[in-house]
Each structure stands twice: as C-alpha cells, then as structure tokens.
Amino acid sequence: MSNDTKTPASAPIPAVDPRLLQREAGLQGYVNEFVRKVRGGDIGSLPVVIGLIVIWLTFGLSNSQYFAPSTATYIAYWMPGVGLLAVGLVFVLLLGEIDLSVGSVSGLSAAVYAVLAVTHGLNPWLAVFTTILTGAAIGALHGWIFAKIGVPAFIVTLAGFLVWQGVMLWVLGSTGTINLTDVGLNHFLSGNSYVLNGDVSGGYILAVLAVASMAYGSFGEQARRRKAGVPFKPTSELLIRVGLVAVGAFVAAYVLNQDRGVPDAQVMFLALLIICDFVLRRTSFGRKIFAVGGNIEASRRAGISVAAIRISVFSISGAFAALGGLTIAAETGAASQSGSDPNNLMMAIAAAVIGGTSLFGGRGRVWSAFLGMLVISSIQYGLNMESLNQDVEYMIMGVVLLAAVIVDSLARRTQKSSGRG
Questions:
Q1: What distance in Å separates the CA atoms of residue 16 and residue 419, rounded to the nearest whole number?
Q2: Domains of the chain: which residue ranges?
Q3: Which positions, given as ranges, span the membrane (predicted)?
C-alpha cells in the first residue's frame, strides 16, 4: 500500500454546529447541553435566577415577614410603572444604543394626560391615546435626529432629558401638581383596582391563560420547525417548560390571592410583555432589530433600512415611556414634578441590564424588564423592612448593576473565544 494513501481514521473530522446536534437521550443529554451553553457564554437568565434566590433567602431569613403575601402584592403593584420604561429601553439597547430621555418623557406624558383629562375635561381614554402618541412622536424625533443627522443617541436623548423636563414644568404650571380623578386608565391602574374586582378566581384565570399561551407558542413553534425539517425541541422538554410555567403562575396567583389579588397594572404589564416578545421573536421587524444591533454594515448590505429601524425603535421607547408615566401617576394619584424623577431612568436602565439585555446590542429579551424589576423590587422591599436608609439602597443597586454588566461582558468574551460572538 502506498504511503500517500490515508486511512479513514486520519481523515479530518468536520466541525458541526452544536446548535444542530440532537439531544442525547435521557437527563444526561440535557445536562450536557446546559454545560455546553454555559461554557460557550450562553448563560441566559441563570444569573438572575440565582440572584433572586439569594435575595429572597437573605431577606427571608432576616425577617420571616418577607415571605408574607403582602410582599408579593407590593412587588406586583410597584413593578409596572418603571418596568414599562424598561421595556422601551430593551428595544433601544438591542440596537446597542441608549435613551436617557425616558424619565422626562414619562413625567411630561403624565402632565399632558392630567391637563387634558382633568383640567380640560377631555374623555380620559382619548387623553390616554393622545398622551401615548405624544410619547411616540417625541421618541421618533429623537430617532430621526440620531439616524438622519448623525448626532449620537447619547447626546440627543440627554438633550431631550433636559428639554422635556422643562416642558413638563411648564405644562404643570405654578402648582407643580395635578391630582388625577379616579376614571379611565387611572382607575384601571390605581391601587384600588384588581382583577375581577378582587375575585380570587381572577388570578387563576390569568394563570390558565398564561400557561395556555406558553403551550400554544411552544408547540406551535415545534410544529413549524418539524414541518420545515430543521431541529426542534422534543415534546418532553416542552412539557417540562410548560409545567414549570404552570407551577410558577398558579403559585403566584395563590400567594397574591392571600392578600388582595392581582393588580390590574400587573396584568397590563404582562400582556404587553407577551405582545412585545412576539414582535421581537416572531416578526421580520423584530429580526431586523436584532440584525441592526448585531452588525449595522451587514444589515445595510442585506437591504435593511437602518434609519427606519432606529427611528421606529426610539418611537417605541417614547410610547412605553408615556405609558410608564401614566402608570406611575396612577400609582401615586397625581401628575407632579416628581414624575420625571431621574431615579426612574436609572432603575429602568438597571432593570433591563440586570434582567439580561446586553449593553452592547444584539442580545436580550423584553422579559429582561420583568426579571430586572423583580430583582430591584425585591431588594427595595427587603431594605424597607430592615429600615435601612436610601443611601444603602443606592449602593446595593449600583453593585448589582455593575455585577450584571460584568457578567454580560464576560459572557460576550466567552462567546467570542468559542467562535459564537
């Protein structure tokens, strides 16, 4: 046999994309896949879940009242306001940009609603619609200046932060505060409004709808991928995922029903998260956002209008800032100068990043806003129970935010080293 003849054993083994590998049978296959993802920097929501467990155990062991149903009610009630700001910021962060104006836009939006609905007696729902359009228009203006003129988004939105703060003070007038009437959206989002007027069945109905939505989306995707002949998640895994969601949903409903039930504001928050998640993961518009955030030049060559995506994303951020401002005003019962509190902006950014959205663009989900706000609200309530000063809260939030960014940076570095960045 010639020395030039190679044996089959010496032939190079072709590299296989691990995302195309089928899972091994049994539990070991899932364990191996999980380890592979973590080593490759694909850690998902793992840091947030671990962080929540540590936070709950720390405060729960320090004060047994932390696990009381009233804690869940507090968290569920105060999450949506700033959480809606965080949802809009997730869209912007996916582009690798930042919107520093959402705090002022939220305060201005609450002021606009109060003047229209209270001072001038406009139909409350028409006032809500007008207010959200105002926020969307402001965001589109920021996006246009950024996309068409080329001014960095940081500068554009920082200027917007100052400008809209001044406009809000002008709209509110000399009193600086306008109390809201208990009608329209304000009634829906106020502290006296719970699903089905406090009926305990309301929370369980929501849990059923959440599980049904999860099952429909998961098995629908499996069917589509199976029909297309591409790898799909096995039925056993989908059943486990749906089962875990069911346990979480019904436990949450049970705990909240021990107090006053599920706040309507939380229902609206979750509904919008589901809609936005569908838009980002199931539509061409959502895929274009990820594409622009991942690589602008490649997106242009693929025929994507980068300017249009940028303008639309900042418009979405403005609309969610307006809706968040309305929610915050309803929670406090008034539109006031505190509506544009810079802390709301900082907490919204922190929530999006802590929840897992990358500051570098191209990676994240709208559920980051929910997870991040859950972390922040859990810490805030625990510190309040311990009667600690606000300075301690700020320091802890800063450390948590820095830790989230460090984890994100290390994950991206790991992905690049493994050829997936």
A1: 12
A2: 43-193+263-417
A3: 43-62, 74-95, 102-119, 125-146, 153-173, 193-217, 238-256, 262-280, 307-330, 342-361, 366-383, 395-411
Nearest alpha-carbon partner for 309 in 92, 27, 125:
92
Where would I find the H helices in 145-234? 153-172, 184-189, 201-228
- Residue 99: phi and psi, rounded to 5, are -125, 105
Please say if the pLDDT value at position 294 is more than 50.
Answer: yes
Cα distances (Å, whole numbers) of residue 417 to 38, 148, 360, 379, 410: 13, 35, 17, 34, 11
Identify the helix (H) or strand (E) that includes residue 384. helix 367-385
- Helix, strand or coil, per DSSP, at residue 288: helix
Q: Tokens for 254, please give them.
A: 């049970």
Reading the block at residue 383, the tokens are: 């510190």
Tokens of 342: 């810079």
User: What single-letter DSSP state applies at residue 115?
Assistant: I
pLDDT tens across 309-347, in order? 999 999 999 999 999 999 988 888 888 887 778 888 988
**Model pLDDT for residues 222-250, shown as the tens digit of each residue:** 888 888 887 777 888 788 888 988 898 88
- What are all long-range contacts of 168-174, with beta carbons under 8 Å and residues at least 24 apart? 168/104, 168/107, 168/108, 168/111, 168/337, 168/339, 168/340, 169/337, 171/108, 171/111, 171/112, 171/115, 172/111, 172/114, 172/335, 172/336, 172/337
What region does 378 belong to: left with phi over 0, alpha with psi -120 to 50, or beta?
Answer: alpha
Instruction: Give the pTM.
Output: 0.85
The two three-digit tokens of residue 84, written as one number? 């809606």
Please state, in angstroms and rounded to a whole number, the distance separating the CA atoms of residues 119 and 113.
9
Give 326 or 192, the one with higher predicted confidence.
326
Classify 194 as helix, strand or coil: strand
How far are the Cα atoms of 189, 323, 335, 366 from residue 87, in angstroms, in the given order?
18, 11, 22, 6
| Secondary structure class of 249 (helix, strand, coil) | helix
d(C-alpha 261, C-alpha 105), whole Å? 31
Q: Which of 19-23, 72-76, 412-416 has the lowest mean pLDDT?
A: 19-23
d(CA 291, CA 289): 5
126-135 residue pLDDT tens: 999 999 999 9
